[in-house]
Design a protein that fits this description.
Number of domains: 1
Low-confidence stretches: none
Number of strands: 3
Largest sheet: 3 strands, parallel
Mean pLDDT: 89
CATH class: Alpha Beta
Helix content: 40-55%
Strand content: 15-25%
CATH architecture: 3-Layer(aba) Sandwich
Order of helices and strands: HHEHEHEH
Radius of gyration: 15 Å
Strand order of the largest sheet: 1-2-3
CATH superfamily: Flavodoxin domain
Distance between the termini: 31 Å
Structural class: alpha/beta
Length: 151
């Protein structure tokens, strides 16, 4: 929404020469101010699953998937919830990353692991306000991604 998670995803994709997909929903989401936080928290609490308008992704061609999300109310975003429900991801190697404003990443990762049961989790990394800590966050994302090249 505000580009923090996208920034990290781009650094990971650049480092690994990987494909990248940004989930898009049919309903436009608030991008700033109180409405963004109110809508985000409400959406997580009520378990909303917005309709995704992305072209179908062939996950069979991937052994490893990186899933990134902002942390909203100690959880992952509703578009990620929709993605997990739509694709029923199984038997993949999954790395999780999250951008956050101060806390909640551990709870977010635990919830993602529960929702994605049946997969092997190979790593997780939280990034505190990546755009405010641009160089440090970029360096950490690239170093983390490089560690998967050795696996």
């Amino acid at each position: 929404m505000d580009g923090n998670t996208k920034l990290i995803a781009e650094k990971i994709a650049e480092t690994l020469n990987a494909d990248i997909v940004e989930l898009k929903t049919s309903k436009k989401l608030p991008k700033e101010g109180f409405a963004k936080y109110f809508w985000g928290g409400k959406s997580v609490i009520f378990g909303e699953k917005p309709k995704l308008i992305n072209k179908r992704i062939d996950l069979d061609q991937y052994e490893t998937i990186f899933i990134g999300t902002p942390v909203w109310a100690d959880s992952y975003t509703p578009p990620i919830k929709s993605f997990i429900k739509q694709y029923k991801i199984q038997s993949k190697r999954i790395a999780l990353f999250a951008s956050h404003g101060g806390n909640g990443a551990e709870k977010c990762f635990a919830k993602l692991k529960t929702a994605l049961a049946g997969n092997e989790f190979i790593g997780e990394m939280a990034f505190l306000e990546p755009k405010k800590n641009l160089q440090e966050s970029s360096d950490r994302a690239m170093k983390w991604a490089e560690s998967f090249l050795k696996m």
